[in-house]
Amino acid sequence: MALTLFRGLQSNSFRLYSSVYVSRKHGVLYCSMRSAEGQTATQEKQQTQLKASLKKESTKFEELLKNYEAVIGIETHVQLSTHTKAFCSCPYNYGAQPNTSICPICMGLPGALPVLNSKVIEYAVKVGLALNCKLSLSSKFDRKQYFYPDLPKGYQISQFDIPIASGGYLDVDLPLEFGGGHRKFGITRVHMEEDAGKLLHTGNGSFSQVDLNRAGVPLLEIVSEPDMRTGIEAAEYAAELQRLVRYLGVSNGNMQEGSLRCDVNISIRPIGQLEFGTKVEIKNLNSFSSVSRAIDFEISRQVLLHSQGQANQIVQETRLWEEGAQKTVTMRKKEGLADYRYFPEPDLPGVALSEEYINGIHDSLPELPEMKRRRYEKLGLSMQDVLFLANDINVAAFFDATIGPGADVKLAANWIMGDIAAYMKNEKLSINDIKLTPKELGELIASIKGGTISGKIGKEILFELMAKGGTVEGLIKEKDLVQIVDPAEIEKIVDKVLAANPKQLEQYRGGKTKLQGFFAGQIMRETKGKANPGLLNKILLEKLNAKS
Amino acid sequence: MLSSAQTPRLLRSPTTTTTTLKCLHSSPVPASATAPPPPSQILTTRKSLVSRQTSAVDIAKSFLDRLRRTEPHLNSFLHVSPDEAILKQAEELDNKIKNNDAVGPLAGVLVGVKDNICTYDMPSTAGSRLLENYWPPFDATAVRKLRESGAIVVGKTNLDEFGMGSTTEGSGYQVTANPWDLSRVPGGSSGGSAAAVSARQCMVALGSDTGGSVRQPASFCGVVGLKPTYGRVSRYGLVAYASSLDVIGCFGSSVADAGILLNSISGHDKFDATSSKREVPDYQSQFVAIDYLESKPLKGLRVGVIRETLENGVDSEVISSVRSAVSHLEELGCSVMEVSLPSFSLGLPAYYILALSESSSNLSRYDGVRYGKQVPGDELNSLYGDSRAQGFGSEVKMRILMGTYALSAGYYDAYYKRAQQVRTIIRNSFKEALDKNDILISPAAPSVAYKIGEKKNDPLAMYAGDIMTVNVNLAGLPALVLPCGFVEGGAGGLPVGFQMIGAAFDEEKLLKIGHIFEQTLQGCSFIPPVIADEWTS
Ligand SMILES: [Zn+2]
Known about the structure:
By secondary structure, chain A is of the alpha+beta class. Chain A has four domains: 2-66, no CATH class; 69-344, no CATH class; 367-479, no CATH class; 487-546, Arc Repressor Mutant, subunit A. Chain A contains 17 helices and 16 strands. Chain A starts with 30 loop residues before the first helix and ends with a helix. Residues 1-47 of chain A have low confidence and may be disordered. Chain B has one domain (4-349, 416-488, 507-522): Amidase signature (AS) domain (Amidase signature (AS) enzymes). In chain B, 36% of the residues lie in helices and 12% in strands. Mean pLDDT of chain B is 91; it is low at 1-22 and 24-33. An eleven-stranded mixed β-sheet of chain B has the order 1-3-2-4-6-5-10-11-9-7-8, sandwiched between helices. The chains are: A alpha+beta, B alpha/beta. The complex binds zinc ion. Zinc ion (ZN) binds next to loops of chain A.
């Protein structure tokens, strides 16, 4: 198995960049994974045993779980949505053709030097402030050194001993379906670094190629304190981080695209024990639910081993979450601590922040999810409503724009969470895609409240507005939908309907009072639904019950 | 003559001319000059082009002729641009001049570029087999600026692999000879550039100086070597050895040439975050023609001679040459005193720890994956290992190993961190000395050029030869080395250079003093034997 690499850059032309591929013979670039495959076989057996015993004694196992506590911390990598990479002027577009967005700097060519994109600092400061961190007025970049084909320089520009922000926390409101409650999870540090490229493995596995489009894209690494105890807490922490970076506009937070990556550290200990158990790292978590499920699986695995006196089999290692099999498997065992030989990056000057700069950014921060939730709560909304509205920044913005000019808060929330949400779900649209504007939703609510139209007609108009746009006023006029609120006019129509249905009237008066609905329907048809229902029923009843 | 009240130790005043001092006369006034001061080749070229006495093509041809004649003896160049390419650029210049179009300040100037500086149109190997046939897709900023000034890049000069060495014997390709004595080294690591300028294979050359790689070869080859302040010249496109110490520097056969060259490559570069935003002064305005000099043109300048550089371990003949140069400065009006830098001897170990640590990291990118030498292997580690094992030379491997060691967990504090602390001490002591003195003076190297092979198996002796220069890199200061005399050896003596160290970004002062010094230096002609017969004027 000879390793062959396609030669990428033998001439001085940029044109050749698109062919910068590394190829390999079978399995080579995954040597660390291959060695892990050997262990996977025995691992496999364990997993099966675990599953079996879990099923057999599920209730007993539930009891067992209660005797243990999991300690969970998360390292999150957030890809910043700056226009250009961290240290060069290449743009980054997810999904672009391999090696089409690279230059001498992000390829690590001899003589090329990094120059920091100042947006990276700005975004880092935003996130640091939003996470209630203390910012370092003077920090620096360091080199983290290791060899891998996706790392062009043989080191990653990162921050080591002086992160730009540290010592903060994140407020999380757990969803009601998981018991609800408020949590404050500690943030150990936030630091800036660059992303590596990607290895593309071919179908038959005979060689790998390197795509350097992603190399040099700015990342923030956010490290939490080991404050989480359950998979749900961890998943909600990650979801809140996603919300935060979206609110701040510093990242799209998309987990599938890898813009938000979570590595989980987890250990268990018997309740009451103070020292931590052996820490296991889990990677390859591509959704919040996989974060939660992987942790629950891992807790079960570790508790089982522990309870069977096999705690020594819980070793410090990195495990992969396998979505298909719904289990974690060994990726690589750690042999002591890797020595990354960090030292200060001599190509970049230190990062100095002034108080004015920080204050300026602080003052420009938008309302953050936690603040928004507390405000919605104060508006009198239920926690369920609060979470629904504040979860998505666009929904929240729509809601705020609706109630801003004075629309009824509760009604606005109901419309958005009810018919609008249902429509979006059916049509697979986001709130920004629908044609309805917050202003028109406000008009609609006001028109119903003010009696110009009925709730029923309001609903019809809503769908029209969402699908085609337009204004409430225009639609009402166009379709002649103004509610009839003049009692005399309604009386006239009631009389007409009663006169036209003498037989039913007789039956009604004979005791078949259910026929009131029939008359109401007839009147509504006659008025094309425009009659004010309250007035209509009042007048109708008077007429029906009047002694003739 | 000494203005200080502290009654420093008096320097030995020049007595009679010794055998080591062939050219210094006691009077600064060139009444009895036997050789003219070195002309600025750049200014001469410009004058003859603009007045249309010569064409750029003729000038280029004469240099190419000499290059072809001398190169077999010297091996200064790793790559020479094809004649057609050079002559085509010269022709374009001639056409511009014919049409009265503006031409840049370096119009028609033939420049040699050290091969660790990237050029778009030539290979750039940094002297390493690992980068054999590597063609960068871009010009280094300094090279781009040279071309924009009208200069013509003649070729790429030899060096110790990645700049790691002091003899140029560490090149992965060839050994360059010293034009003064072909059995000797030209110094290093910019030995190719120094030899090329010395033998007039090109007019000026770019080198790089991490611990003395411009200044020591300038001294060995009898040319002017200028190491600018760290940050004065962009490092973009300079293949990194030790990023916090690396500087692109200038070689010329006169101070004026080195200064004019510096003018065109200096300035902030958005591609180098460590390049300074300070304005670049017009260095050329510092050059006063000899006819206009007063009798004490350097009156009032305070010159400090670094005591620790004229002590044990330095050849006595080098010491007397430098002392004579100091006396010469004194006669030009400078007030001289001796200064002590007790931290001076700490510089060498601190330098080697920092330079090697940084180099171990900077050379990680040569992994055989994207460019450069690649040895196919069964698995990733053998691809890395074999490519690097076969691509790097032994000196480079040794330095990577030592640097890796110094940065390793458990050793970092004892080595890297302490060396950084020493660096701060050195920087402060230089700052203090330069607050009291306009310039500081030392030899450029403890000896004249070594014999080829002399230091090959004694790396520690070779490292020790850097003692005069490394402190300046640690402090980030500018320094100018210029020839000041000869020591017996070779066919016509071996040149000795002395070093003037200035305050940060005060290259102007160094150039001004250097220009007056060389114009008033008498009877000295730094034309090496290899071209002496044809070079008469
Ligand atoms: Zn780039």
